[in-house]
Amino acid sequence: MPSVNVSLYLVTERSFLPPGKSVQDCVREAIAGGVSIVQLREKTATGREFLRLARELRDICAAANVPFIVNDRIDIAMAVDADGVHIGQEDIPLKDARRLLGPNKIIGVTVKTIEQALAAVDGGADYIAPGVVFPTTTKDNAVYLGPSGVGEIIAKVRQHNATIPIVTIGGINSENVSAMLREVEQASGGFKLSGVAVVSAIMKHQDAQLAAHALKSCLVDNVVNVEGTLALANSDLVERVVSLLQRVREKRPFVHSITNNVVFEMTANIILHLGGSPIMAHSIDEVEEIGNSIDSLILNMGTLDKFRIASFHKAAQKANSRNVPITLDPIGCGFTSLRRQAVAELLSSTRISIIKGNAGEIGFLSGSMETSSRGADSVGKLTDPATVAMTVAKKYNTTVCITGAVDYVSDGTRVVRCENGNAFLGLLTGTGCSTTALIASFAGVAEGDYLAASVAGCTVMGVAAEMAAVKCGAGGEVFGPATFRTALFDAVYLLTAKDVQKYARVFCLDDK
Ligand SMILES: Cc1ncc(COP(=O)(O)OP(=O)(O)O)c(N)n1
Ligand SMILES: Cc1ncsc1CCOP(=O)(O)O
């Protein structure tokens, strides 16, 4: 059994769900937010109800390649072919569970003492869960060990030469998790936890994706990279993003946007807040002259008409003649014949440095039938976005960026997965166009490295969104999409190299 990724472990509790929300939706959102393993824990369900839920959650988890664990009930785990079970000290013993489930299923064991931890390790558990770390009202009579008690157990297990993943549980939320992880590490003499398990911090949240994201952001650097556990962000790429951020602020690239009517003001401001210098102009009578001095050009197809198309061509010709990077945002490019024709003509007559679109738009350019566009919105899902990004990049000899809950960037050779962001971005119109504007600003100083420019644009938007969303909740200043917008723009303006180094989650996919 390969080491199981327990970095962010969701344990369910249906009674905590906000009104109208299903456990299935919550689990889907939580996975999109970064949960690495899910446990169905239903203390009051009938056997049949438990079985039905287990089947449904197993399918959701399997589709996302996330292990699905059943709490206590080995019979139900076996009936639905779950990936494993979690058992406590009062449940069926580990030895019997293993005999029933065989060597290929995951068995996790709750441990409250050093003796129980070593017994579970020696008995062949796949992970152990010392706890509870903080008092919690979610489980009755849970005796809490505190970070120091959990740290002592980790120390003894690691001294015992065991690399088994160790996850703790109980009263953990996005506010106390970072300090807890540090305290545990200190108390264990330098050994980190492999992950954290939570119930209420995700289940009670209106937006489980946001809640999971907020927790996951705190885990990077604080959770051990046990084999198969939380992958480390690619440090070369992160440093490239940092240096591009510094260059934008030093050089103030002059970015010309021929964009749509909805995002005029937003685009100008995001470029300005990042550190660039925007010019918003679309008249055919001046785009060529403007092209004499710009560092980067944006062609955004949002509100398209024949005048804008003509301006695109004139501006693009000038940009190509000066080797100025062009970032194309082919909004709704498969939706109407005007858009289909415009994008085909642009791609055949001009050199485009970066195409940034959603799954519907890039899917259309790849010829995929999996997705489509409804106006500016994407419909459907790409089964393999990394390959689609690479295919379109090769086809048009460009860099392609597919934005979504996770962004994929490819220059036709490499593929990078950018994981930052949160659900609020989907609730605010213009955030996609703002990402395009960030990418184009970075392209203006990237000296031809458009893969890095695209990764930088997606990462800055994603990290800023996560930082803005932290202000959501009791005592915070973010109440919904409108206040989020203000916090997001401030976060872009205030973003530091340290923030990027701490929070960026960018991963090169070597196997592509
Ligand atoms: C990840 C994880 N850790 C601990 C527990 C608690 O399990 P247990 O001690 O068996 O208590 P119940 O869950 O049965 O109340 C868990 N479920 N998951
Ligand atoms: C299932 C379980 N086992 C030990 S504590 C606990 C519940 C933790 O819930 P919360 O994350 O809401 O404190």
From TrEMBL:
Catalytically driven reaction(s): 5-(2-hydroxyethyl)-4-methylthiazole + ATP = 4-methyl-5-(2-phosphooxyethyl)-thiazole + ADP + H(+); 4-methyl-5-(2-phosphooxyethyl)-thiazole + 4-amino-2-methyl-5-(diphosphooxymethyl)pyrimidine + H(+) = thiamine phosphate + diphosphate; 2-[(2R,5Z)-2-carboxy-4-methylthiazol-5(2H)-ylidene]ethyl phosphate + 4-amino-2-methyl-5-(diphosphooxymethyl)pyrimidine + 2 H(+) = thiamine phosphate + CO2 + diphosphate; 2-(2-carboxy-4-methylthiazol-5-yl)ethyl phosphate + 4-amino-2-methyl-5-(diphosphooxymethyl)pyrimidine + 2 H(+) = thiamine phosphate + CO2 + diphosphate
One GO BP annotation of this record: thiamine diphosphate biosynthetic process
Cofactor dependence: Mg(2+)
Protein family: In the N-terminal section; belongs to the thiamine-phosphate synthase family. In the C-terminal section; belongs to the Thz kinase family.
PANTHER family to which the protein is assigned, alphabetical: THIAMINE BIOSYNTHETIC BIFUNCTIONAL ENZYME, THIAMINE-PHOSPHATE PYROPHOSPHORYLASE
Function in brief: Condenses 4-methyl-5-(beta-hydroxyethyl)thiazole monophosphate (THZ-P) and 2-methyl-4-amino-5-hydroxymethyl pyrimidine pyrophosphate (HMP-PP) to form thiamine monophosphate (TMP).
Name by which UniProt lists this protein: Thiamine phosphate synthase/TenI domain-containing protein
